[in-house]
Amino acid sequence: MTNKIRELFLLKQDLVFLNHGSFGACPKPVFEAYQAWQLKLERQPVAFLDQSRDIISNLKPVRIAVANELGASSEDLVGVTNATEGLNIVAHSLKLQPGDEILTINHEYGALEKTWELVTERSGAKVVEVEIPLPLVSKEQFVDALINAMTEKTKILFLSHISSPTALLFPIEDVVAEARKRGIISIIDGAHAPGLIDLNLDALGADFYSGNCHKWMMAPKGSAFLWARKQVQPLLEPLVVSHGWTAQSGGPEQQGIFGNSRFLDCFEIRGTRDPSAWLATQDAIKFAKLHNWSEKVKHADALARETAQTISNLTQLPLFSSPEFCAPQMIAIPLPECDVDNLKRRLYEEFNIEIPVFRWRGHCIVRISVQVYNTREEANCLVDALTKILNLGVKES
């Protein structure tokens, strides 16, 4: 079946791509804008990157466009390469002491678990991991578990907004509010959230939030943001010190490139780099609006949920949550005990299906991501392939 939306993307035509949630997929017009920025850079690199010429004026409209999408001020966010980088900036900036506790849950992304492992090794602080029992069927189940774990030693609350392994959309608002009351710094991993759910960062009220634009916002790879509440921006130090850095105690005579915004100075200007992916993010936002994406994704979400339920019916294994806690368009589906590496390989080699299959805390999981370019035929292809490989629905004689 012809899929006109699919023709707007660069994906291989014969590939059943059910993994938009990992790295996204960039539409052709957005990729062309990305290449145009790169070409402009190479044609006059000095003018493009010089702080007194093009770079400042080029970066500002991107921050404004992204901030408008996320319910934020353009003075409170900066472009970074990916959410992991943004969250590392925060984690390595905060001054922790022996005995301090970082409160988190057992659904976090592996790279950030390693980040906090390094931070605690260096500081003597401790990670306290709260188990969120499955299936998640109530807001209280999540909120109470975390609030009950907060103590006087809790200095940081670190949570995924949408979890990578279980694809759950967590009701973080009340927990963030409670952390603020107790003077606990809240850091949110929003890697999957931008473009997938409606965000209002100012209203959420976390201290720090980092998310990817290259996933569901469909920007080129290497486009993400770090947002920081204005009152806590002075806590941050760049991982790379460059011309934009100014000392915390700098007075009026040390006015930076962006005037009185040390936050923008430190993180917008980070030495010689190609910012084209970030600059093209504004084109990704325009693409989504031009094609009425917010309406089209409703069908994609419905298809993801129907497919997940079909597989759950075949395996007779319940999904990880009730519907309100499933992220839109992306669902982690438990599978019977199997060789996950072999299953992933066979899905790709025999059925040309690109989809993550992995083991997480005793569960075998396939995580489906359905974007607007996906079809019901592709979803059925996954169901048929899993049925064949895992003998789903076949009764033993």
Give the terminus-to-terminus CA distance.
38 Å
The CATH topology of the largest domain is Aspartate Aminotransferase, domain 2
Strand order, largest beta sheet:
2-8-7-6-5-3-4
Domain count: 2
CATH architecture of the largest domain: 3-Layer(aba) Sandwich
Tell me the β content: 5-15%
Listing every helix as H and every strand as E from the N terminus to the C terminus, the arrangement reads: EHHHHEHEHEHEHEHEEHHHHEHEEEH
Which stretches are poorly predicted, pLDDT < 50 over at least 5 residues? none
CATH class of the largest domain: Alpha Beta
User: Which word captures the global form?
Assistant: globular
**What is the helix fraction of residues, given as a range?**
40-55%
**How many DSSP-defined strands?**
12
Q: Name the average pLDDT.
A: 93
Oligomer: single chain
Class from secondary-structure proportions: alpha/beta
The CATH superfamily title of the largest domain: Type I PLP-dependent aspartate aminotransferase-like (Major domain)
Helical stretch tally = 15
Biggest sheet descriptor: 7 strands, mixed
Give the radius of gyration.
Answer: 22 Å
Quick rundown:
This protein is of the alpha/beta class.
Structural write-up:
By secondary structure, the protein is an alpha/beta fold. The protein folds into 2 domains: 29-287, 3-Layer(aba) Sandwich (Aspartate Aminotransferase, domain 2); 292-390, Aspartate Aminotransferase, domain 1. Helix content is 40%, strand content 15%. It is built from 15 helices and 12 strands. It has helices at residues 20-23, 28-43, 45-49, 54-70, 83-93, 110-123, 139-147, 173-181, 201-204, 262-268, 276-279, 281-290, 293-315, 340-351, 376-390, and strands at residues 16-17, 77-80, 101-105, 126-130, 154-160, 185-190, 208-212, 224-228, 330-335, 353-354, 357-360, 363-369. It has a 7-stranded mixed β-sheet, with helices on both faces. A 3-stranded antiparallel β-sheet has the order 9-12-11. The chain has a two-stranded parallel ribbon with strand order 1-10. The longest helix has 23 residues, at 293-315. The protein starts with 15 loop residues before the first strand and ends in a 7-residue tail after the last helix. 42% of the residues are buried.
